Amino acid sequence: GSCRVSMSMAEIRAGFTAIKANIQSRDPIRTLSILSHPHSLHKLKPSDRCCITHQLFTFYVDKVFKHCRTEDSFVNRKISSIANSFLSASRKLGQCREQNNCVCGEESTEKFKQILANYEGLNVTSAAMKSLGELDILLDWMEKSR
Amino acid sequence: SGELYCSLPNPRNVRFESINMKNVLHWSAPEGTGDGVFYKVKYAVYGVGKWIRKPECRNINRTWCDLSSETSDYEEQYYASVKAFLNGTCSDWMETTRFNPLTDTKIDPPMVSVSSTDRSISIILTAPEKWKRSPEEESISLLQVYPGLQYNVSVLNKKTKKRWFFSISNNTLVVPWLEPGTAYCVSAQIHVTTPVLDSGFSK
Hints:
The structure holds 2 protein chains of 2 kinds. Chain A has helices at 9-25, 49-64, 73-98, 106-120, 124-133, 135-144. By secondary structure, chain A is an all-alpha fold. Chain A has a single domain (9-24, 45-144), classed as Growth Hormone, Chain: A. The longest helix of chain A is centred in the middle third of the chain and has 26 residues, at 73-98. By secondary structure, chain B is mainly β. Chain B has helices at residues 101-104, 142-145; strands at 12-19, 22-28, 38-45, 52-60, 64-66, 78-86, 89-90, 94-95, 111-116, 121-126, 149-157, 163-168, 172-175, 184-192, 197-198. In chain B, strands 3, 4, 6, 7 and 8 form a 5-stranded antiparallel beta sheet that branches. In chain B, β3 (38-45) and β4 (52-60) form a beta hairpin. Chains A and B meet through α1 and α6 of A and loops of B.
């Protein structure tokens, strides 16, 4: 089966664009990426996209947004707005998985393991801020594979 | 080679300027330096562990460097950096912010071709192509890069100054019920819904 989840990509994208420079400037590490290396999301098979999308939304909700508080209230508001959108989308994706419309293949399981390894290779705050700064990598991949 | 003691002021405003994914690094000369400043450039793919020197932009005295070839994979993101040299001293490396070709490029207006009958206008729109290394290389339309690409079309009756706006996803539009013998001005813009990117209107 297939799994279609409605969410406002434009709203998330606009929220991220507003804080992108601020967030990315807090990440001094050029040589490591949480999401895109060593293997790009773009190389995943279509059949694995639903599962990895759900895993990534859960990852952002559980491990990223809560560790991204800043001293800037504008930035914090944008982060919580994005977090709310992710929370509702990840719930809907979860229902898909329960209805078995969103099967996890070996590739997506392997890719997600690698993302967690990249994340755990840094201290929590750096890893969370880097992950948040890479949100456009996730959004670009999602929009391309719609 | 050992690095010199770097007391030269830094290059300023180091940034990518990108149109249709022709990605050119630009910067301003260090403050207070006249002629005789030379530069070298390096770049890095974000997430990959090494900086790569750009030989064609080594010891140059211009303040730009075309990195289109090196940044042509728009599924990746990039950093670039510039260092200045003058009279045996140098500046620090000065970096861009993270560059995402997909969201940080500007898009040219579409090409507009118009044919008409006595009471209607047929408009055909062509999105610009992504930058390519050589004319022989296969062309990629920005339509392929941005699945959400749309066209906003404006049709102006030059006599009455009345204007119509249309937003279309395909690239053809027929505007019927027009006044015979009247001049109309057609202009079009590209609008990408997400990421949000808008071209200017065509002339």
